[in-house]
Amino acid sequence: MFKTRLLSGIILVIAALGLIITGGTVLLLGLTAVSLIGLYELYRVFHMEKSLLGLVGYAAVLLYYLDLYFPFIPELDVFVLGLLILLMAVYVFSFPKYQASQVFAGFIGVFYVAVMLSCIYQTRELPAGAYIVWLIFLCSWGCDTCAYCVGVLIGTHKMAPKLSPKKSIEGAAGGIVGTILLTLLYGKVFQEQMQLLKGVIGGALRIEDAFTRYGNRHFILMLVKTDLEFCSTIFQRLEAAYSKEGGKGELWYYADMTQELNRNSL
């Protein structure tokens, strides 16, 4: 049993790494499949996995992920209300086949499983998502690991004896503190990368150019007498120098002319 769980865990970690590193459509399709499987397992608890209520939930998951790729739903409220109306319609027109608890599970399950899992894709697609997305796993897995270790070592006060007899208050505190420390360590690593990038930018620009730090993840560069086409050349120069100095991760940029910025601000 232990070997089976260990092997399945290793396979899942490898699959997760492949999906997240690749990102894009591959990650979206992978999360869609995982969401459908997870929702199916949740619906099994309420004995509705093969019912019409379940089919409405599965269709909602597909619709939601399709909207992430091809946005066509104007507001999330439309999706929420549409799902609720369909589930209530099935409940009313099939009465008394389904219980109110099954309708509630059908509605909440879509958000508890599919929508929350989609945050991985939405975070990965952010400008700095390739770095931020790992915080999701670092916090969740780190919290579980730290809570388990602290609970086993010094856990004496039961947190929820009836719900989870082995959980302790010390373990919960250890999980929170451990997550904070891991997040700070992760941020420290990328702060060093930002300092490295700062040095690379300073060494690559001309005397008349200027740059400054903007926020935690960005630099603003002002290039004198430079057109947009040459900005691409400068970026490639910076990217090559950053990689040569041992920089990790991908860089990106946005360029615009000062005349356009002035016109847009009027």
Describe what this molecule looks like in 3D:
- This protein has helices spanning 2-22, 24-45, 52-69, 76-93, 100-124, 129-154, 169-204, 228-244, 258-265, and strands at 158-160, 164-168, 210-214, 218-222.
- It has 266 residues and is mainly alpha-helical.
- The chain has two domains: 2-125, no CATH class; 192-265, Reverse transcriptase/Diguanylate cyclase domain (Alpha-Beta Plaits, 2-Layer Sandwich), CATH 3.30.70.270.
- The strands form two sheets. The protein has a two-stranded antiparallel ribbon with strand order 1-2. A two-stranded antiparallel sheet has the order 3-4.
- It is globular.
- It starts with a helix and ends with a helix.
- Helix 2 runs antiparallel to helix 3, helix 5 (100-124) crosses helix 6 and helix 6 runs antiparallel to helix 7.
- Strand 3 and strand 4 (218-222) form a beta hairpin.
Shape: globular
Number of strands: 4
Distance between the termini: 68 Å
pLDDT < 50 runs, ≥5 residues:
none
Could you give a short account of the major beta sheet? 2 strands, antiparallel
DSSP strand (E) fraction?
Answer: 5-15%
Number of domains: 2
Fold blueprint:
Layout: H1 2-22, H2 24-45, H3 52-69, H4 76-93, H5 100-124, H6 129-154, E1 158-160, E2 164-168, H7 169-204, E3 210-214, E4 218-222, H8 228-244, H9 258-265
Antiparallel strand pairs: 1-2, 3-4
Helix pairs in contact: 2-3, 2-5, 3-4, 3-5, 4-5, 5-6, 6-7, 7-8
